[in-house]
Amino acid sequence: MKKYIKESAAFLTQRGFDSPEIGIILGTGLGQILEKIEIIAEISYNHIPNFPTATVEFHKGKLIYGTLEGKKVIVMQGRFHLYEGYSLGDVTFPVRVMRALGIKRLLVSNASGAINKDYKKGEIMLIDDHINLQGGSPLAFKGVEKMGERFVDMSAPYDKDMNAKLEEIAKENNIRLHKGVYASVVGPQLETRAEYRYLSIIGADAVGMSTVPEIIVANHLGLPVSALSVLTDECDPDNLKKVDIEDIIAQAGKAEPQMITLFSELIKQI
Predict the structure, then answer these.
(1) pTM for the whole thing?
(2) Would the pLDDT of 54 be above 90?
């Protein structure tokens, strides 16, 4: 893997991806932040050596480099998922490449369903902790100890300082920001009523199909990370409605300006 990481990083460096400070992973329906970025270089995933290719229709599949609030950022416009047939190594490979390019912090976003009945669609949740229900680990491979500590501590996987700043920014900008636990499942099917009840019982406030693998690898790399979930639907098993993917995308777009404010102001401060 080290060889592949070096090849990908070298390729991107040659194409102008020069010493990014912050990495950003954009979730489903979340791309408006690109309008605030002064883009210097961009490249499709399928042109980058060793990179997987995004197959989900609403994930663009581009790596973008530019400046945001005076900082050099590298943005994943679209991410990879287990449900696309990729391994956890594939899903997290871009995080390792961004780290090799020089990022010192990682910001992650996703679209998720609200399990907590006090949370409403169109609102945002700051991830304080997570539950890995994807059935594996991106660190479970031979030779992982050559790339970092095998037994990574996960007592505080999300950076406390950045999370505290995000909470303060939310208050200053009158943004309702929940704080809770994100459960990551495989998908791509949505959950049954019984599964939503189970998720609530085990302590999940929101559920999605991404993010946790990238967080685990960020911790493996010693990379401070914060993550926001845009809540796109309400998962009340007693009043469950058929999921409308177009509505999920619409809800993500509606809440995104607040997410952009949170991330932009955080980037300004770090």
Answers:
(1) 0.94
(2) no
